[in-house]
Write a structure and sequence with these properties.
Length: about 100
């Protein structure tokens, strides 16, 4: 039951007009992208969904050891939620894990 509620809440989040980059703030993310410090979120999402097909339910930019990472959560066709982490500058995958 708890998983169903979580999936429903995530589905509601999908109804938003666009994905928000949380954590660092939209303005900072825009400045970092324009300065070439991070890749555009769209390109990282394209990479993520090519490796793990599903619908993106959350994307977050976070500081990490002097750099930045994108944390992308998606739900696959079986309803399993995955967290994918990517280096925001290089687009290299850092980790993939199934969420509980």
């Amino acid at each position: 039951m708890g998983r169903l509620i979580a999936v429903l809440l995530m589905a509601v989040a999908l109804l938003a007009p666009s994905l928000a980059v949380a954590g660092e703030g939209h303005d900072k993310a825009k400045r970092l992208k324009e300065a070439g410090e991070i890749l555009p979120l769209e390109s990282v999402i394209k990479t993520a969904t090519s490796k793990k097909p599903g619908r993106v339910i959350e994307a977050e930019l976070k500081s990490s050891r002097g750099g930045y990472i994108y944390e992308i959560e998606l739900v696959d066709k079986e309803g399993v939620v995955w967290e994918l982490k990517y280096d925001a500058k290089t687009g290299e995958m850092i980790s993939t894990k199934e969420e509980d």
